[in-house]
Design brief:
The N and C termini lie far apart (68 Å). The protein has 658 residues and is of the alpha+beta class. It has four domains: 28-238, 2-Layer Sandwich (Heat Shock Protein 90), CATH 3.30.565; 244-409, 2-Layer Sandwich (Ribosomal Protein S5, domain 2); 441-551 and 619-652, Rossmann fold (3-Layer(aba) Sandwich); 556-617, Dna Ligase, domain 1 (2-Layer Sandwich).
Length: 658
């Protein structure tokens, strides 16, 4: 290529003028950048599609026109959402020249929630829910029942349609109106289109609690041979007349409540309504879930800030008035008064100011004083009218204050012994040579035997090994002060180097990956759960930032002559067995690993530690409250909820061999 040709090509590559400006028409923008609208194309984004359609039905319930919502998971992981609301308007849109229903499903920022009188209160502000779901679906079928007719329209390939909305039938007199949407997520957009029943159940149960009296039914039809196949159909029918008070009771089912029933407060001011339900239990951790117009604000916001500020002020004012806090004593902190608290904070207002389409934080400044006044006045009155309950709750806060001071003294004592700050590392730790935590990883290994194999088999440049022996403290039943000095847990804290509790600083984390490696048996599962509970309770940012992993060691080793393979499940074992014994010349020997200690260093490296071959599972935290509920249920004192969980999930276990 000549110098002049190269110069011309460079000019073309570096060109930036009016020809480089692209305009994405219609729903193209959604398909081009789906993360802007649903957060991501991971499983979280996939499940968010259902939420967007259900939210539209919930808005009908908020307006008083919908009593029942059904969500069906159909074969092939299509979703059907049906409501008995008014039905989306079907008339011709005056500006667009097409049916209003088609506008809602094909044009961004179109809907009845922009002050036109369709909805006084709504979770949908941006008018992109239905159209985004359509844009990210390979097919969508819309059926509307209103105005005495049944209307239908089919969309395909991300919102395209060949025919307009049309009448396909008539409604009989008195027949129910409503909307039915069936959509198939586009596999070209979502790497995994398999819906998780439990995830949908959690989301829909929330909505049933938040909308007292509304019935929501979730059904899984994926494995059903027909409508009468009860063995393969799972269904949950939810309706809670107690509203958010029932929600609190549900969240506390694995804990022992300090008072019955939950405290329920509600206040209306102008066009805003604030509602709080709260109950204290015998645990050491708080669970606060906040909502704005039924949308879960996972990152809180002004309503949650108002609740927390008022709660702390009520406790301190009550304590001083009743001489429970003496002159010169320290005030209770927010952490003190929220220990063992489960609370739901729900507000409804005409115009929500959310941060982003995924609506994780509320910004309305006028909400904070409303919630503050509700909680301060309402809880103060409750304490005066229920002195015995007030005393029990206040004693728990004082106990939390003493424990906080004890933890502070234990931390200072530990530091004086040069454990946390001197850089001294646990004696059993086999450290790596690299100091770059973008590449380093630490294996927390069950048992000295497996730890020895891991030390020999590892790549010492970036892999560190910390063996643990025996079962450690169950921190679900312990406060922070018991962790300091604990011979099982403090080596983990010291090795990671980032501190614990309020002192945790991720910038000091010595390893980018913290990999829990335990035997594939009941004891190994228990150890994994104990460590996970510890990280969740006292080092949660490690989970939130994606630093915690589970190693996946193989269950079987298959040999046939010089051929060798490993299987990580019974199904994989059977497949390998079939492939290795096709000619029938040699017998296949199968070894079932009972523990990591049975593997020599080479086997452990090849199967579980080599980054090119291993499988490790990242622990993700999508909902702290749901995680809290699960951990409390599994690791707490109550047996019945744990038994129900095991029985409910036993259907997912096949050929369990321990």
């Amino acid at each position: 290529m000549s110098e002049e040709q190269m110069k011309t090509e460079n000019q073309i590559e570096n060109q930036y003028d009016e020809t480089q400006i692209q305009v994405l028409e219609g729903l193209e923008a959604v398909r081009k950048r789906p993360g802007m609208y649903i957060g991501s194309t991971s499983l979280a984004g996939l499940h968010h599609l259902v939420k967007e359609i259900v939210d539209n039905a919930i808005d009908e319930a908020l307006a008083g026109f919908c009593d029942k919502i059904t969500v069906d998971i159909l074969p092939g992981n299509a979703i059907r959402v049906t409501d008995d609301g008014r039905g989306i308007p079907t008339g011709m849109h005056p500006k667009e020249g097409i049916s209003a229903a088609t506008v809602v499903y094909t044009i961004l920022h179109a809907g009845g929630k922009f002050g036109g009188g369709g909805y006084k209160v709504s979770g949908g502000l941006h008018g992109v829910g239905a159209s985004v779901v359509n844009a990210l679906s390979s097919s969508l079928d819309l059926t509307i029942r209103n105005n005495g007719h049944v209307y239908y329209q089919h969309f395909h390939n991300g919102g395209k349609y060949d025919e307009p909305l049309k009448i396909i039938g008539d409604l009989a007199e008195g027949e129910q109106t409503g909307t039915c949407v069936v959509f198939q997520p586009d596999p070209a957009i979502f790497p995994d289109t398999t819906y998780d029943y439990e995830t949908l159940l959690t989301d829909l149960r929330e909505q049933a609690f938040l909308n007292a009296g509304v019935r929501i039914v979730l059904t899984d039809l994926r494995e059903a041979s027909g409508p009468d196949d009860k063995e393969h159909i799972r269904r949950d029918d939810m309706k809670y007349e107690g509203g958010i008070s029932s929600f609190v009771t549900h969240l506390n089912k694995s804990k022992t409540a300090l008072h019955e029933p939950p405290i329920h407060l509600i206040r209306k001011e102008d066009d805003m309504i604030a509602e709080v339900a709260m109950q204290y239990n015998d645990s050491y951790y708080e669970v606060i879930k906040s909502f704005a117009n039924n949308v879960h604000t996972m990152d809180g916001g002004t309503h949650e800030e108002g609740f927390k500020a008022a709660l702390t002020r009520v406790f301190n004012d009550y304590g001083k008035a009743k001489k429970l806090i003496k002159d010169g004593d320290q005030n209770l902190t927010g952490d003190d008064v929220r220990e063992g608290l489960t609370a739901i904070v729900s507000v409804k207002l005409p115009e929500c100011e959310f941060e982003g389409q995924t609506k994780t934080k509320l910004g309305n400044t006028e909400v904070r004083p409303l919630v503050t006044k509700l909680v301060y006045e309402g809880l103060s009155t409750y304490f005066e009218e229920n002195p015995a309950t007030a005393k029990a709750i206040f004693d728990k806060a004082l106990s939390a204050q003493r424990a906080r001071e004890a933890a502070k003294r234990a931390r200072e004592l530990t530091r004086r012994k040069s454990v946390l700050e001197s850089g001294g590392l646990p004696g059993k730790l086999a450290d790596c040579t690299s100091k770059d935590n973008t590449v380093t990883e630490i294996y927390i290994v069950e048992g000295d035997s497996a730890g020895g194999s891991a030390k020999e088999g590892r790549d010492r440049r970036f892999q560190a090994i910390l063996p643990l022996w025996g079962k450690m403290l169950n921190v679900e039943k312990a406060r922070l002060e018991r962790v300091y000095g604990n011979e099982k847990l403090m080596p983990v804290v010291t090795a990671l180097g980032c501190g614990i509790g309020d002192d945790l600083d991720l910038s000091k984390l010595r390893y980018g990956k913290v990999i829990i490696m335990a035997d594939a048996d009941v004891d190994g599962s228990h150890i994994r759960m104990l460590l996970l509970t510890f990280f969740f309770r006292f080092m949660r940012p490690l989970i939130e930032e994606g630093h915690i992993y589970f190693a996946q060691p193989p269950l079987y080793r298959l040999t046939r002559g010089k051929k060798l393979s490993y299987a990580f499940s019974d199904e994989e074992r059977d497949q390998h067995l079939k492939e290795m014994s096709e000619d029938g010349k040699y017998k296949v020997d199968i070894q079932r690993y009972k523990g990591l200690g049975e593997m020599d260093p080479i086997q452990l490296w090849e199967t579980t530690m080599d980054p090119n071959n291993r499988t490790i599972v990242k622990v993700e935290l999508s909902d702290a409250a749901q995680a809290d509920e699960t951990i409390t249920m599994l690791m707490g004192d109550k047996v019945e909820p744990r038994r129900e969980f095991i029985e409910r999930n036993a259907r997912n276990v096949r050929n369990l061999d321990v």
